[in-house]
Amino acid sequence: MSSPADTETLPAATPAAAHIFTTVLSHGPLTRLEVARRAGLSAAAVTKAVRPLIESGYLVEEADTGAGADTEVRPALGRPATLVRVDGGRALFIGVKLTGDEIIGVLTDLCCRILLARRVPLAGRDPGAVLATAADLVRELLTEADGYGVRVAGLGIAVAGDVDRAEGVVRYSPFLEWRDVPLAGLAAAVTGLPVTVDNDVRALTVAEQWFGAGVGLSDFAVVTVGAGIGCGLVVHGRVVAGAHGVAGEIGHVTVDPNGPPCHCGNRGCVEAIAADAAILARIRETGGTEVADTAEAVDRARHGDTDAREAYARAGEAIGRGIATVANLLGPARVIISGEGLAAYDLFAEQIREAFTAAAFGSAAQCDVRTRPLPFEEWARGAAATAIQSFITAPN
């Protein structure tokens, strides 16, 4: 099994060097000139930072074939420019997404490409039982990593709820019913790996910023719909957690003061109207009949059940108002809608668009709102992305 005790760090001795490496990771292959332009640094600073990264094998050089990005800035005559790219095979990472019912784990390379994915059910939600199951999954992935001949440099864990990444503590997770669980320390003790714990939507946002639909955007948001309503924010190129780690909680923005009670203690929150459980409750309330689960609710709505269709329409309006709140406050270039709730997107897409357009102020309505279905393996990949982020910025 790969040795977790190996604590080699990325030779990026300064924040500028880490920024340069991240720039190449997200946008490469790039020439040094392009790296300097994108990173807002001098050519000399880039050359100084790149040298140890190349010598240690994290960056590699290759001839420019003309197929890369920004070809217009490259000379047409003379010797071809040299491109710099990240060697994805230089290190491996594990990402784990925890839900209330199962654990999803992935093994990725340094470029966050998924090499292996595994799912295991949860027998219970007690922190000790969840940790034991997660540790078994991590050990399985570590064994699989042996076949690649490369060490695993970090473990990322993504959990829904209020997560203090700096302290590695899950303050509150509604689906796991956890409070103040020091998950990073516990996981590090049983796996021997450096561990990063973050909110699952923020983790997904990191992956979208570096490798997905947010690449190249300085301001965007990821809104997730399904069991809960989540939101990850990128402002001026940084994923925002806020002073208390709960920035972006649009699930608890009130859109109907007279609406149903929310588990947070308020009424009419987006989550109290648009989360899966809220939609089921609404169908039961208005129709007076039992509905077993979301799959049945979707099926009813698609077959014309008026109560089910009304519940989804109401959910879409709430989500649209929530997205408009984000657009009005932060003015993102793009909002990416994802989450397991997209399986029913056809049932409330129109209401989302109408409510967003009605509530967005002025130029905020120009925000590009798009959907991006992502399975839970991609959320686990987001957890791996946070581990990669920690690896890049770790003190040397």
Descriptors:
21% strand; five-stranded mixed beta sheet; alpha/beta; globular; 12 helices; 396 residues
- The number of strands is 16
Cα Rg: 22 Å
> Strand share of the residues?
15-25%
Distance between the termini: 25 Å
Instruction: Name the poorly predicted regions.
Output: 68-74
The overall average pLDDT, rounded, is 91
What kind of sheet is the major sheet? 5 strands, mixed
Strand order within the widest sheet? Answer: 6-5-4-7-11
Query: What is the 3D form?
Result: globular
- Secondary structure category: alpha/beta
Q: Count of DSSP helices?
A: 12
Helix content: 25-40%
Name the helix and strand elements from N-terminus to C-terminus, one letter apiece: HEHHEEEEEHEEEEHEHEEEHHHHEHEH
Verbal overview:
- This protein has 12 helices and 16 strands.
- It has 396 residues and is α/β, with parallel strands linked by helices.
- Helix 8 runs antiparallel to helix 10 and helix 9 (294-302) packs across helix 10.
- It is globular, with a radius of gyration of 22 Å.
Summarize the structure.
With 396 residues, the protein is α/β, with parallel strands linked by helices. It contains twelve helices and 16 strands.
Topology:
Elements: H1 15-27, E1 30-31, H2 32-39, H3 43-55, E2 59-63, E3 82-86, E4 92-98, E5 102-109, E6 114-121, H4 127-145, E7 152-159, E8 162-164, E9 169-173, E10 178-181, H5 183-191, E11 195-199, H6 200-211, E12 220-224, E13 230-235, E14 238-240, H7 270-274, H8 276-287, H9 294-302, H10 306-330, E15 334-338, H11 345-359, E16 368-371, H12 376-393
Parallel strand pairs: 4-7, 7-11, 12-15, 15-16
Antiparallel strand pairs: 1-3, 2-3, 4-5, 5-6, 8-9, 9-10, 12-13, 13-14
Helix pairs in contact: 1-2, 1-3, 2-3, 4-5, 6-12, 8-10, 9-10, 10-11
